[in-house]
Design goal:
Shape: globular
Strand order of the largest sheet: 2-3-1-4-5
Number of domains: 1
Order of helices and strands: EHEHHHEHEHHEH
Structural class: alpha/beta
CATH class: Alpha Beta
Bound molecules: shikimate-3-phosphate
Strand content: 5-15%
Distance between the termini: 6 Å
Helix content: 40-55%
Length: 174
Protein backbone atom coordinates (compact mmCIF):
# COMPACT_ATOMS: atom_id res chain seq x y z
CA UNK A 1 0.00 0.00 0.00
CA UNK A 2 1.32 3.34 -1.01
CA UNK A 3 2.12 6.19 1.38
CA UNK A 4 0.01 9.36 1.13
CA UNK A 5 1.55 12.81 0.68
CA UNK A 6 -0.68 15.80 1.41
CA UNK A 7 0.15 19.08 -0.32
CA UNK A 8 -1.72 22.36 -0.60
CA UNK A 9 -1.86 25.96 0.49
CA UNK A 10 -1.66 27.14 4.10
CA UNK A 11 -5.00 26.47 5.76
CA UNK A 12 -6.03 23.74 3.32
CA UNK A 13 -6.12 21.26 6.22
CA UNK A 14 -3.05 19.13 5.46
CA UNK A 15 -2.21 18.57 9.12
CA UNK A 16 -5.74 17.85 10.40
CA UNK A 17 -6.53 15.59 7.44
CA UNK A 18 -3.15 13.91 7.96
CA UNK A 19 -4.01 13.20 11.60
CA UNK A 20 -7.37 11.75 10.57
CA UNK A 21 -5.77 9.50 7.91
CA UNK A 22 -3.09 8.35 10.31
CA UNK A 23 -5.79 7.16 12.77
CA UNK A 24 -7.87 5.52 10.09
CA UNK A 25 -4.96 3.71 8.48
CA UNK A 26 -2.99 3.16 11.68
CA UNK A 27 0.19 4.64 10.34
CA UNK A 28 2.51 7.44 11.31
CA UNK A 29 1.96 11.06 10.33
CA UNK A 30 5.14 12.86 9.32
CA UNK A 31 4.44 16.60 9.46
CA UNK A 32 7.47 18.25 7.92
CA UNK A 33 6.87 21.72 9.46
CA UNK A 34 6.71 20.14 12.92
CA UNK A 35 9.80 18.02 12.22
CA UNK A 36 11.80 21.08 11.15
CA UNK A 37 10.63 23.02 14.23
CA UNK A 38 11.75 20.14 16.42
CA UNK A 39 15.08 19.80 14.67
CA UNK A 40 15.82 23.53 14.94
CA UNK A 41 14.30 24.06 18.38
CA UNK A 42 12.48 27.08 16.96
CA UNK A 43 9.05 27.85 15.52
CA UNK A 44 8.69 28.37 11.75
CA UNK A 45 8.29 32.14 12.34
CA UNK A 46 11.50 32.21 14.38
CA UNK A 47 13.38 30.25 11.72
CA UNK A 48 12.17 32.64 8.98
CA UNK A 49 13.12 35.68 11.09
CA UNK A 50 16.52 34.45 12.25
CA UNK A 51 17.79 32.37 9.35
CA UNK A 52 15.60 33.46 6.43
CA UNK A 53 13.28 31.66 4.04
CA UNK A 54 16.08 30.21 1.82
CA UNK A 55 17.51 28.39 4.84
CA UNK A 56 14.07 26.96 5.65
CA UNK A 57 13.61 25.83 2.03
CA UNK A 58 16.96 24.02 2.09
CA UNK A 59 15.98 22.22 5.26
CA UNK A 60 12.66 21.16 3.68
CA UNK A 61 14.51 19.52 0.79
CA UNK A 62 17.04 17.87 3.12
CA UNK A 63 14.20 16.45 5.19
CA UNK A 64 12.40 15.04 2.13
CA UNK A 65 15.62 13.24 1.18
CA UNK A 66 15.79 11.73 4.66
CA UNK A 67 12.12 10.70 4.65
CA UNK A 68 12.74 8.51 1.60
CA UNK A 69 14.47 6.05 3.93
CA UNK A 70 11.23 5.40 5.88
CA UNK A 71 9.89 1.88 5.59
CA UNK A 72 6.21 0.94 5.48
CA UNK A 73 3.17 3.02 4.72
CA UNK A 74 3.38 6.61 5.95
CA UNK A 75 1.29 9.76 5.85
CA UNK A 76 3.16 12.94 4.98
CA UNK A 77 1.91 16.47 5.47
CA UNK A 78 4.27 19.07 4.00
CA UNK A 79 4.46 22.87 4.19
CA UNK A 80 2.48 24.91 1.67
CA UNK A 81 5.66 26.01 -0.10
CA UNK A 82 7.29 22.60 -0.41
CA UNK A 83 6.05 21.78 -3.94
CA UNK A 84 7.51 25.02 -5.34
CA UNK A 85 10.96 23.54 -5.94
CA UNK A 86 11.20 21.14 -8.82
CA UNK A 87 13.49 18.89 -6.82
CA UNK A 88 10.89 18.73 -4.05
CA UNK A 89 8.12 17.84 -6.49
CA UNK A 90 10.21 14.88 -7.63
CA UNK A 91 10.94 13.84 -4.05
CA UNK A 92 7.27 14.13 -3.06
CA UNK A 93 6.36 11.80 -5.91
CA UNK A 94 8.94 9.31 -4.68
CA UNK A 95 7.47 9.37 -1.17
CA UNK A 96 3.99 8.26 -2.19
CA UNK A 97 0.72 9.18 -3.79
CA UNK A 98 0.53 12.98 -3.83
CA UNK A 99 -2.88 14.45 -2.96
CA UNK A 100 -3.45 18.17 -3.49
CA UNK A 101 -5.97 19.73 -1.11
CA UNK A 102 -7.34 22.55 -3.21
CA UNK A 103 -8.76 25.52 -1.33
CA UNK A 104 -10.21 28.92 -2.28
CA UNK A 105 -8.69 32.20 -1.04
CA UNK A 106 -11.93 32.91 0.88
CA UNK A 107 -11.67 29.65 2.84
CA UNK A 108 -7.99 30.26 3.62
CA UNK A 109 -8.84 33.76 4.82
CA UNK A 110 -11.65 32.55 7.07
CA UNK A 111 -9.55 29.75 8.54
CA UNK A 112 -6.39 31.77 9.12
CA UNK A 113 -7.82 35.15 10.22
CA UNK A 114 -5.72 36.29 13.17
CA UNK A 115 -3.15 33.52 12.72
CA UNK A 116 0.35 34.68 13.61
CA UNK A 117 2.25 31.50 12.81
CA UNK A 118 2.48 31.93 9.01
CA UNK A 119 5.23 34.49 8.29
CA UNK A 120 4.25 34.80 4.62
CA UNK A 121 0.74 36.05 5.48
CA UNK A 122 1.61 38.65 8.11
CA UNK A 123 1.24 42.40 7.66
CA UNK A 124 -1.33 44.43 5.74
CA UNK A 125 -3.72 42.89 3.27
CA UNK A 126 -3.54 39.17 4.10
CA UNK A 127 -6.31 38.48 1.54
CA UNK A 128 -4.18 40.10 -1.20
CA UNK A 129 -1.21 37.96 -0.17
CA UNK A 130 -3.31 34.79 -0.12
CA UNK A 131 -4.68 35.50 -3.61
CA UNK A 132 -1.27 36.33 -5.09
CA UNK A 133 0.48 33.29 -3.62
CA UNK A 134 -2.34 30.91 -4.51
CA UNK A 135 -2.36 32.21 -8.07
CA UNK A 136 1.42 31.78 -8.34
CA UNK A 137 1.33 28.29 -6.91
CA UNK A 138 -1.78 26.64 -8.33
CA UNK A 139 -0.03 25.28 -11.40
CA UNK A 140 2.88 23.89 -9.37
CA UNK A 141 0.54 22.16 -6.93
CA UNK A 142 -1.27 20.55 -9.83
CA UNK A 143 1.99 19.51 -11.43
CA UNK A 144 3.11 17.83 -8.20
CA UNK A 145 -0.23 16.07 -7.63
CA UNK A 146 -1.55 12.64 -8.54
CA UNK A 147 -4.98 13.50 -7.13
CA UNK A 148 -6.85 16.74 -6.46
CA UNK A 149 -9.53 17.19 -3.79
CA UNK A 150 -11.49 20.43 -3.27
CA UNK A 151 -11.83 21.11 0.43
CA UNK A 152 -14.07 24.20 0.49
CA UNK A 153 -17.10 23.71 2.72
CA UNK A 154 -15.94 20.27 3.84
CA UNK A 155 -14.96 19.10 7.31
CA UNK A 156 -11.86 17.00 8.00
CA UNK A 157 -13.57 13.55 8.17
CA UNK A 158 -15.25 14.11 4.80
CA UNK A 159 -11.98 15.10 3.14
CA UNK A 160 -10.22 12.05 4.66
CA UNK A 161 -13.00 9.74 3.43
CA UNK A 162 -12.87 11.27 -0.04
CA UNK A 163 -9.13 10.71 -0.22
CA UNK A 164 -9.48 7.07 0.75
CA UNK A 165 -12.30 6.55 -1.75
CA UNK A 166 -10.30 8.19 -4.52
CA UNK A 167 -7.19 6.13 -3.81
CA UNK A 168 -9.23 2.95 -3.76
CA UNK A 169 -10.92 3.84 -7.01
CA UNK A 170 -7.52 4.51 -8.54
CA UNK A 171 -5.99 1.21 -7.61
CA UNK A 172 -4.82 1.31 -3.99
CA UNK A 173 -6.51 -1.25 -1.76
CA UNK A 174 -6.24 1.01 1.37
C1 LIG B 1 4.55 27.99 4.02
C2 LIG B 1 3.62 27.20 4.66
C3 LIG B 1 3.73 26.81 6.06
C4 LIG B 1 5.20 26.79 6.50
C5 LIG B 1 5.85 28.10 6.19
C6 LIG B 1 5.81 28.44 4.69
C7 LIG B 1 4.33 28.37 2.60
O1 LIG B 1 3.15 25.51 6.25
O2 LIG B 1 5.90 25.74 5.88
O3 LIG B 1 5.19 29.09 6.93
O4 LIG B 1 5.28 28.81 1.93
O5 LIG B 1 3.17 28.21 2.12
P1 LIG B 1 1.56 25.21 6.25
O6 LIG B 1 1.14 25.06 4.83
O7 LIG B 1 1.46 23.93 7.01
O8 LIG B 1 0.91 26.35 6.94
Amino acid sequence: MESIVLIGFMGSGKTTVGISLSYKLQCTLNDTDKMIEKQEGWSISEIFAAKGEPYFRKEETRLLEKLKEKKGRQIYSVGGGTPLREENRRLLGELGRVVYLKVSPETVYERLKGDVTRPLLQGDDPMGKIKTLLHEREDLYRRAADEVICVDGKKTPQVAEEILALLKQNGDEA
